[in-house]
Specification:
By secondary structure, the chain is of the alpha/beta class. It folds into two domains: about 240 residues, Rossmann fold, CATH 3.40.50; about 45 residues, no CATH class. The strands form three sheets. A six-stranded mixed β-sheet has the order 8-9-10-5-11-12, with helices on both faces. It has a four-stranded antiparallel β-sheet with strand order 4-3-6-7, with helices on one face. Strands 1-2 form a two-stranded antiparallel ribbon. α11 packs parallel to α12. The protein is globular. The chain starts with a strand and ends with a helix. The structure holds adenosine-5'-triphosphate and magnesium ion. Magnesium ion binds next to α1.
Length: about 300
């Protein structure tokens, strides 16, 4: 939590470690027909979610269709506010209307379909859209647009028409449009779902670079386990509850529990799990292809050793 502290009789503003703190978040969608009598029939989508996100973290959110991932993500920049419970973004209560503008500048959202997010007919004009709306002076807009386009490696394409770009390139332009606001955090809701493998790789590399080099906090919803395996932390949501929260190693070694809620583990983690089940000495927490290959090689070498001894 943020606040002020008195040091040597002076009030000093301090910032907490967490950019997002959500506690006891319950949420249901209200319809026009909502009234007190129908309250009992309302379907709760989030059922008391507690989650904190640290500054600089790279977090993946997983869950099967309809589990509440997008609904939760929309709480992170005040598109939705809790029916009960609290969400604070950098110490600002998301339910307070006065905070909405500052929250939206701090936390940018990127959605699945780049075509829905690109508004202009020239790449750089599209990226300039948010800084223009922020009322920044032209020189600063120019600087931010160039910087954002360079960060997503789209500077060379700045005067192209977005519809001529590949899906991965369009999604990178959409990300540049968010970066130009200089947010501290970006929330990406299945940013690679509509892309081919190459586009997926481009977008993930871009997001990893923004996190690693610029220190931007990243929250990414994905259905791709290999993408989640590259994050610092994985949160699994099921039916509006947080079911797991840990490192990819911790989460993906729980292969059977993930299966029970309709999720796979990365293929390497599944293979390691099957080998363990058959009695082979493979460490739990194997997530990447390299780790799995190393573990198998070790097994084979041990076997060879046994065979030689025999
Ligand atoms: N605007 C809305 N009005 C009413 N119900 C909604 C609305 N948006 C989503 N829902 C319902 O809320 C539940 C959770 O939806 P949400 O979009 O958060 O799930 P999700 O985990 O993001 O799913 P997916 O993987 O399909 O994107 C679903 O049952 C969905 O039908
Ligand atoms: Mg969704």
């Amino acid at each position: 939590m943020n606040g002020t502290e008195e040091i040597n009789n002076e009030k000093v503003l301090y910032r907490g470690d967490n950019i997002i703190e959500a506690s006891g978040v319950h949420f249901y969608y209200r319809s026009a027909a909502d009234d007190a009598e129908s309250a009992a029939n309302k379907k709760e989508i989030l059922k008391g979610v507690d989650i904190t996100v640290k500054r600089g973290e790279f977090l993946a959110i997983l869950g099967h269709n309809g589990s509440g991932k997008s609904t939760l993500a929309k709480h992170f920049n005040s598109i939705l506010v809790p029916t009960s419970g609290k969400v604070e973004i950098d110490g600002m209560d998301s339910a307070d209307d006065e905070n909405v503008y500052n929250i939206r500048r701090k936390v940018g959202m990127v959605f699945q379909n780049p075509d829905n997010q690109i508004v202009a007919t020239i790449v750089e004009e599209d990226v300039a859209f948010a800084p223009e709306n922020m009322g920044l002076p032209p020189e600063e807009i120019r600087e931010r647009v160039d910087e954002a386009l360079k960060e997503v490696r789209m500077y060379e394409n700045r005067d192209k028409a977005p519809h001529l770009l590949s899906g991965g390139q369009k999604q990178r332009v959409a990300i540049a449009g968010i970066i130009a606001m200089r947010p501290e955090c970006i929330v990406l809701d299945e940013p690679t779902a509509m892309l081919d493998p190459r586009g997926r790789r481009e977008v993930i590399e871009t997001v990893k670079r923004l996190n690693g080099e610029q220190g931007i906090t990243v929250i990414m919803i994905t259905h791709y386990m290999d993408e989640a395996a590259q994050c610092d932390r994985v949160v699994v949501i099921d039916e509006g509850n947080i079911l797991m929260d840990g490192t990819p190693r911790e989460v993906f070694s729980r292969v059977e529990e993930l299966e029970a809620v309709g999720l796979d583990s990365p293929q390497a983690a599944q293979l390691a799990y099957e080998l363990r089940k058959e009695g082979f000495d493979v460490p739990s927490g194997v997530v990447s292809v390299k780790e799995c290959a190393d573990a198998i090689q070790k097994l084979l070498e041990e076997r060879k050793g046994v065979a030689v001894k025999d």
